[in-house]
Amino acid sequence: MNRKKFYLTFLIALITITLSACGQKKNESVYQTVRQTKTINWGVKADTPLFGSMSVKDSKIRGFEIDLAEALTHKMLGKNAKANFVTTTANTKIQLLKNKNIDAVIAAMTITPERKKQVDFSNPYFPAGQSIMVAKNSKIKNVKDLSNKRVLIVKGTTAADAVHKFAPKAEILQFDDYGQAFAALKADQGDALVTDNGILAGILHDNHGYKLTGGTFTNQPYGIAVNKGQTAMMKHINTALDELKKDGTYTRLAKKWFGNIPGFNIKEIEQY
């Protein structure tokens, strides 16, 4: 074999090995990896009270999803396993998952058809949906009572369409963020604030004189996300989630974080 043929053969072999290695990496099982390391890297929220928020006292993330992720980790991998938390945002969580910086996402992530094209979701673990916050002395009891009322929402959310579906005569006032919208409610600029029930529960946690009313009037549950094709990881997450519900851990955590929120229907969570 002359030198030219030798180098050509060598180059072809090198490319074949590289492509094979890339294919193996692409198709590697996340579940097998977490079993070996006894660690699950969870993408979580650090700015959503009750679900996951950073404590100013010790800079640790705490919340319902944090506790649930730890319980899932121990159920899946044993009591000595570690749940490692990586802060994500709405814009980064799917990309971090695709880049394999994290193994799963549990970050107030609504299950949607569009997201299902990019990731696989677990069974729902939180009954999220549009809900209504009002002053404790308000006579508003459900979404239909919002007709001819001033309803405060945040721009870019689906709240306006949801409200108009059930209360077409409602007057919608839009704000840039939840802080502004809640400030408007406190200043009596509106009769009700409408958005996701979990977000409202977080606002209520730190503010008195208000309540949730009417339960949820849309169905937009949260799910745990994993990369497409990671069927073993998803299977074990769903199994662990079912076991946590059966042994009472799930209900205990739900009551811990949402049990004292005025007007929040804890039974809705217990049914999941």
Automatic annotation (TrEMBL):
Gene3D superfamilies: Periplasmic binding protein-like II. One of its GO terms (biological process) is amino acid transport. Pfam families: SBP_bac_3. The keyword Manganese does not apply. SMART domains: PBPb (SM00062), PBPe (SM00079). Keywords: Signal, Transport. The keyword Transport applies. Residues 48-260 form the Ionotropic glutamate receptor C-terminal domain. Residues 1-23 form the signal peptide. One of its GO terms (molecular function) is ligand-gated monoatomic ion channel activity. GO terms for cellular component: extracellular region; membrane; outer membrane-bounded periplasmic space. Residues 39-261 form the Solute-binding protein family 3/N-terminal domain. Belongs to the bacterial solute-binding protein 3 family. This is Transporter substrate-binding domain-containing protein. It comes from Lactobacillus amylovorus.
